[in-house]
Specification:
- This protein is an all-alpha fold.
- The chain is built from 14 helices and no strands.
- The protein is flat and about 70 Å long.
């Protein structure tokens, strides 16, 4: 008969193993608490306080409940920011994914300089955002930009890309599409590598080539990767800030203002830190919805 009573030596060994596990986990937990936990808690607290520049001198930040949230949601800019965030996100994701998928399928074919061309496609990803925004701001300048110079050659009048309320948002979306193509192309290209060539060879014998092969083989097998790319793209795009500030600063006349840029302006231009935190939390909640979807999709893929 085997005894189930744990001996002192065994108990000491088990405690030692547990201590070793937590010793290795401690640095990661400390990092998460300091750099993720504290900012989130602090931001939530600021959103229910009257936190302004005066707080830095007096240390006083009176509790105001949900007044900051009410002020933010009832402001005249909130509706425009929400709509622009939606248009900016949908437009960017549609462009980035469509072009990224087309390039991924194109580069799956074997041809000379394939690797060199794929490497060059990663350049937008490697440039700092401030550099990309400066370059595009020059290219889209109405009077001296190269885009209008090219359009002038074919007889098109100069377009005020960044100074017109009618086209400024579209111009910012185009730039963000350019920035996001490398991410989409790289992830989708990796997914395409997992599809065996034998499937295409067998389909070709049945006459399924080109679009039919894509619809019958590529798309169904690539769909799990597509879900991840789209969800991550939405989360990344919702928080895009620097490229919009660099190109238009949210203007003209709030034509390109988004939830992210408005939160930044409330905090660091108007110094209404409480309202800025409240708007930031609203953006975090929206992002969390898509993050939860991403986790569920990833979990479902592992089970499959």
């Amino acid at each position: 008969m085997t005894s189930t009573t744990e001996t002192p030596a065994r108990r000491a060994m088990r405690l030692k193993e547990e201590l070793a596990k937590w010793t290795f986990l401690a640095p990661a937990l400390l990092f998460l608490v300091l750099f993720f936990g504290y900012p989130i808690v602090k931001n939530v607290m600021m959103s229910v306080q009257e936190y302004t520049t005066r707080t830095f001198y007096t240390g006083e930040a009176p509790w105001v409940g949900f007044d900051n949230y009410i002020a933010v949601v009832s402001s005249s800019v909130f509706g425009t920011a929400m709509l622009n965030t939606l248009l900016f996100t949908v437009g960017s994701i549609a462009g980035q994914f469509t072009i990224g998928l087309a390039l991924a399928v194109f580069f799956k074919k074997r041809f000379p300089l394939n690797g060199v061309m794929r490497s060059l496609m990663l350049l937008p990803w490697l440039l700092p955002m401030i550099v990309s925004s400066a370059i595009w701001k020059w290219m889209l300048d109405k009077d001296s930009g190269i885009i209008n110079e090219i359009l002038g050659v074919v007889g098109v009048d100069a377009v005020p890309w960044l100074t017109s309320t009618n086209v400024a948002l579209a111009a910012v979306v185009i730039v963000n599409i350019w920035l996001g193509i490398p991410f989409n192309m790289t992830i989708l290209y990796s997914g395409l590598q997992d599809i065996p060539d034998e499937l295409y060879e067998a389909a070709a014998l049945d006459g399924a080539v080109g679009w039919r092969a894509f619809r019958s083989i590529t798309w169904p097998l690539l769909r799990p990767v597509v879900s991840v790319v789209l969800i991550l793209g939405v989360v990344y795009t919702l928080k895009v800030l620097d490229i919009i500030l660099g190109l238009t600063d949210g203007g003209p006349a709030n034509a390109t203002v988004t939830l992210a840029t408005q939160s930044y302006k409330l905090s660091f231009a108007n110094f209404e830190f409480g309202q800025g935190a409240a708007l930031g939390n609203i953006l975090v909640i929206i992002s969390l919805v898509f993050a939860v979807v991403y986790l569920r999709v990833s979990h479902a893929e592992k089970e499959d």
